[in-house]
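From the shared-data thread, chain only:
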Amino acid sequence: MKATFSAALFAALVTLGAQSAPDPLYDADPHECTSWIVMPNLTCGKYMIVHKNRDTKSKKIQLYKARPEGKNAWISLSDRGGGNAFAGLNSKGLAVAMNSGDKTDFYSKNKEGSYTPEICKYALENCATSEQAVAFIRDHVKRGDYRHARSGSIWFVADSKKAFIIEHDAKHFAAHEVRENFAIRANAWHYPEMLIYSQRDQKSLVAHHRREVAVRSLIFADGTKYNEPVTQEKIAAASRINSYPDEPQCYPLCGSLTNSGSTLMIDCEFPEMLSTLVAACGPPRHTAYLPIPFLLDEFPQELAEGTFCDAVFARAGEKRELLPQEKLVEFERTLRKRHEEAVEKGRKILKAGGTVDEVKKLLAGAFRRNWEDLKKLSAGCDAKAAQTKPAAAPSPAPAKAK
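Structure, as tokens:
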């Protein structure tokens, strides 16, 4: 299948972007994450994909890689200084992401239990497969080592062969395998085992399902483009939807609290060596998705310490986009092409019996070039904005004493 991107869908996305997003009714809720799984049968057998748009009040994030002794290494975008994971990828090619779930009477009242970002981190450190991750999370919940305000949770776990979505509260737990195609959740439970415990009202349920429908509609063109492969470009476009002209009251994919986007791409042939985190290190409409190979040993200081992310949030606060959306898509194609060419060269090296160090060097070289391009573009955008910003009005002279 030839990878194409519907011109009509792209035009719709640009039209959405040209509008100023209204003030949605649901902005008060900081837990408006949207995550989905794309199975390998929709990526020509190349990738298992987990994506998360994260919504939270936090504006201090960093790119983080942990190397705990005797455990799996992992990477994720993380709250500054927190050292936890929200959508992470580990050294075994396992992806774990989490969303908030429905409000329920069966929320955790254990003030000593682990928060979901901690459980996400622990699962990445200790599990090698999606089935192990399901069992690990279930064990945390069943023994009461879990807390999450007044609601339950939703999890997305995948390796190169299998994927699962978990829905649970502090007492009830349901996990089902995603066997083919695509599955998505905003923050509303879907499973019959969990629905009877949900306290979500109709208006809220409509808002959450509206985000799910928006993603499906863009990626699959309202059910008419199911034969085209799902690409990271389509996923990025979906992650940037910032309004619904037909239902402006519903909180969008990329709203006022969306602080990042993470696309976890698990390579189906060499999951431990060629998998990639493609990250929007800040609100996705205000930066570019950067491919970050898992094998990368060192991150640029600006990403690791979060100063690059600070600039993206400043841009978002001033309602400045990095580029017009159609230009941003073109720029990301250049980054992605460079990364994918390095991945395919690395694949040939591994098939020929080459070393991981050879592949690591190849991927790191492509990453450095991509990072320099993104850094240069971002700095130029911000410098231009600073030059055109109106000068502050002079302070009034102090009144003379009589």
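The chain has one domain: 7-386.
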